[in-house]
UniProtKB/TrEMBL annotation:
One term under GO cellular component: plasma membrane
Matches recorded under Pfam families: GNVR
Molecular function via GO: protein tyrosine kinase activity
Name listed for the protein in its UniProt record: GNVR domain-containing protein
Organism: Derxia gummosa DSM 723
UniProtKB keywords: Coiled coil, Membrane, Transmembrane, Transmembrane helix
Domain Tyrosine-protein kinase G-rich: 349-421
Residues that span the membrane, as ranges: 398-419
Highest taxon listed in the record's lineage: Bacteria
Ranges in a coiled coil: 218-282, 339-366
Keyword match Transport: no
Length: 483
């Protein structure tokens, strides 16, 4: 259907279209006036989960992006726990009229409080702000005072619920850490008892300086053994030298008795040389002198043998001392090895005690933190705006409904005109003839029943002919000028 046909249909059936549109608009106004007025009260919340723990000062994960956090908080606001807490705070759990409505709608089936929460959820509207942590909470009701009361009550219930959730979680962790603290304390006491019993039975105290002292003594004995071995080697060398070259040994040469005897022997021998020069070999003085020299030589030999024998005794003593020192060294080695074994075992027990102590300290520290967290009742949600009774209803919207009624009425009026035209088809233009009969129109005679219309058509005809003649004359003049 062309716009011309639609225009002619509306021109012919305008009365039906107008009546239909007016009826729709009137009905819309009547329904708008009959609908109960709804009032909407709104509050604003700033949801700001802490980024750091207030006790440990450690970073806290928010659990996702800001969109995820806000979506989670919106689910918490509309949860049964928050709504039931709000209903109890507002006294809806004891409201007789609401209970009667529940019995009327559900025939007493189901849970009354769950029905109350579902009813409140239908009147609740949550709208987060884009890329922001601010959430708008709105509640709609026929009473502006009740709408403001429930908006504020649900907001307070949500703030209290978030605090309770955090505190309950901290309390559960606190109970867990209290149990773990007791277990680790028992483990620490058992480790300390094992260490104390071992030290008491083994006679080892950790830390103990005796092991260092015994190690020092072992090193000292080793040095002494090495020194004695050198001394014994030297004594044995001197002993062998004393048996082969007794007169040239250092001990003999440095012996004072041998030195005195050797000096006397030298003097007597010199005296013998002088006496031989004056007397003969058989002179009694010579014989006496020779006897004295022989006596001195015997004394020197006896003293030399004595000194040489003392060298052997000294070597034997040194060997004995070396054997005793070696025995002491071996004994000291055994003692040090035994103490090292005891010390290692005690060190293992001590490490067990230290590990148990660290675990106990860590769990005790964490338990203290969770205990403080369980006592932290500071909310993480801030109320930016409290709800007040709205002065005007939020629905129905009269102006919007009238505009919609006018638009809908116009469309229905147009539809009514078209439907009536299709039910009673008329020929209103040349297109209708062609579309209905399927034949082509060769010409048409204008219908003119009024004089002023005929005059207007005549004037237009004359004007059109003059314009065509003028255009034709300009065309001929252009052709002449061109030639």
């Amino acid at each position: 259907m062309s716009p011309l046909q639609l225009f002619l249909i509306l021109k012919a059936r305008w009365l039906a279209a107008v009546v239909t549109a007016m009826a729709v608009v009137s009905l819309t106004i009547a329904v708008t006036e009959l609908l109960p007025k709804q009032y909407t009260a709104s509050t604003s919340l700033l949801i700001s989960p802490p980024t750091t723990d207030p006790i440990t000062n450690a970073l806290v994960s928010s659990g996702g992006t800001i969109t995820t956090v806000i979506a989670t908080e919106l689910d918490v606001i509309s949860s049964d726990r928050v709504l039931l807490n709000a209903a109890r705070s507002a006294g809806l759990d004891r409201d007789a009229s609401l209970n009667a409505r529940w019995n009327r709608e559900t025939k007493g089936q189901g849970d009354y409080l769950a029905w109350v929460a579902s009813t409140l959820r239908r009147s609740l509207d949550l709208r987060p702000t884009r890329d922001s942590k601010v959430v708008s909470l709105s509640f709609t009701n026929i009473s502006p005072e009740f709408a403001a009361l429930m908006a504020n009550t649900i907001t307070e219930a949500y703030v209290a619920t978030t605090t309770d959730l955090r505190v309950e979680q901290a309390k559960r962790y606190s109970e867990f850490f209290d149990l773990r603290t007791k277990e680790t304390r028992d483990g620490l006491e058992a480790a300390q008892s094992r260490l104390s019993e071992f030290q008491r039975n083994a006679g080892v105290i950790i830390p103990d300086d005796r092991f260092d002292n015994e190690s020092s003594k072992l090193a000292e004995l080793s040095s002494q053994v090495l020194a004695l071995q050198a001394t014994v080697a030297e004594s044995q060398n001197r002993e062998r030298q004393a048996h082969t070259l007794s007169d040239s040994t250092q001990e003999v040469l440095s012996d004072p008795v041998v030195g005195d005897l050797a000096s006397q022997l030298a003097r007597e021998e010199a005296k013998l040389e002088e006496t031989l020069a004056r007397y003969g070999e058989r002179h009694p003085a010579i014989l006496e002198q020779r006897a004295l020299i022989a006596t001195l030589q015997k004394k020197i030999d006896a003293q030399t043998n004595k000194v040489t024998s003392s060298i052997g005794v000294n070597a034997a003593v040194n060997i004995g001392r070396l054997d005793a020192m070696k025995a002491a060294l071996e004994e000291q080695k055994s003692r040090v090895l035994h103490m090292a074994s005891l010390r290692d075992e005690a060190a293992v027990l001590k490490r067990d005690v230290e590990n148990a102590q660290r675990s106990y300290d860590a769990i005790l520290n964490k338990g203290s933190q969770t205990n403080l967290e369980s006592q932290n009742t500071q909310p993480t949600v801030s109320i930016l705006q409290n709800a007040t009774p709205p002065p005007s209803p939020s629905s129905p919207k009269v102006a919007l409904n009238i505009i919609l009624g006018v638009v809908l009425g116009g469309l229905l009026g147009l539809g009514t005109a078209v439907v009536r035209e299709l039910a009673d088809r008329r020929i209103r233009c040349l297109t209708d003839i062609e579309s209905i009969n399927g034949i082509h129109v060769l010409g048409s005679i204008a219908r003119c029943t009024q004089p002023h219309t005929l005059i207007s058509r005549r004037i237009w005809t004359v004007f059109s002919q003059k314009m065509r003649l003028r255009k034709r004359g300009r065309h001929l003049s252009d052709l002449l000028i061109g030639h």
